[in-house]
Amino acid sequence: MQESMHMLLYRAFHAQRNILRPYMRALGLGAGQPKLIAYLAANGPCRQRDLADYFEVDPAAISRMVDSLEKGGFITVEADGSNRRRNLLTVTDRGLEAADAWMAKRAQVEEIMLRGFSAEEREAFSAYLTRARQNYVDWKEKHPCEI
Amino acid sequence: MQESMHMLLYRAFHAQRNILRPYMRALGLGAGQPKLIAYLAANGPCRQRDLADYFEVDPAAISRMVDSLEKGGFITVEADGSNRRRNLLTVTDRGLEAADAWMAKRAQVEEIMLRGFSAEEREAFSAYLTRARQNYVDWKEKHPCEI
DNA sequence: TGTCAACTATTGACATGTCAATTATATATC
DNA sequence: GATATATAATTGACATGTCAATAGTTGACA
Fold first, then answer.
1. Closest Cα to residue B145, out of A106, A12, A110, A19?
2. Residue B146: predicted pLDDT
């Protein structure tokens, strides 16, 4: 069966996540959580809305992961003084350590994925993925409702 | 922030699925179900185990989706005469129609994703995804337990 | 000022996935 | 033939995501 691009993306991502999963568990993180603390580590404190926008994930999912990350001591959640609707999320030292460990492991796993890829191929692969997503974003902007 | 390959894959797949989701719902299918009837349509009747192996998904997830697909009239589930442990899954006419409609829509959405890609680039993109996944499979074969 | 609309986070109900345990059936081995 | 092991599917508990509804807060404007 010749696979569709949709399935190729699914299978590549799925394989990667399956390999990373035990490591996330060892860190005490669920499957969706590393990306959040990695974002906080790279970008500094932010609101839940920022995470939902950046990762294009429902705010409800962020809400629950934030709960879990706070309970685990990876982040702190404070009221944002300037606006009582907002929570200000900040990564803790423990969260920073986990984020660093996560990013190192992620790089190691990517090396497995890219075995046999030349530097040019890696560059091209990465660029294709970026362009593909950007095409969706552009399209969505023009067609907010319908398919 | 320079994105990791892991996040690039996540975001590209995610964007695609978010665009396809309303169409799946319109067909009466959940997010994981189209791939199952597409497989059955392409490969003929099979066991649940085959689907779990092919898609590298937990048999428990297959079990529940099979339930739902049967209730929706997209597939039939019979006892496999040769082995009473096994269920034989067969796509119905309704399932075939849904699979065809799904594949047509999927192709249309992939065209959005690949806008501006030359034929050579499409070929290369597809090949990269296949190689990436194969690298994981090969690695997993050598390292069944540890990371 | 008062009202209406928009924004932020949360909650409930559901789907899809994970893992672990269970049940039932087949197969292998002594 | 009896017993042990492997296989196929199911079920329960949980995480991450969706959608829809809600509560509280802010902002805009008559």
1. A19
2. 52
Whether A119 and A107 map to the same domain: the answer is no
Tell me whether B103 touches chain A (CB under 8 Å): yes
Q: Which of B1, B11, B122, B134 to mutate to test the interface with A (most CBs of A within 10 A)?
A: B11
pTM comes to 0.90
The span from the CA of B123 to the CA of A16, in Å, is 22
Q: Which residues of A116-141 are buried (b: 16+ CB within 10 A; e: fewer)?
A: ebeeeeeebbbebbebbbbbbeebee
Q: Does A21 touch chain B (CB under 8 A)?
A: no
| A142: containing domain | 114-147
Whether residues A68 and A99 fall in one domain: yes
* Domain at B76, CATH number: 1.10.10.10
Which pLDDT band, with edges at 50, 70 and 90, does B67 fall under?
A: very high
B117-129 pLDDT, tens digit each: 999 999 999 999 9
Contact B129 A14 (CB under 8 A): no
Residue B64 tokens read as 């529940």
Tell me, yes or no, whether B133 and B86 share the same domain. no
As a whole number of angstroms, the distance between CA A73 and CA B109 comes to 41
C1' of D30 to CA of A47 (Å):
33
Query: Count of CB contacts below 8 A, A vs B?
Result: 160
Q: What are phi and psi of B46, to 5 degrees?
A: -155, 180
Positions in chain A whose pLDDT score sits under 70: 1, 144-147
Q: Does A142 touch chain B (CB under 8 A)?
A: no
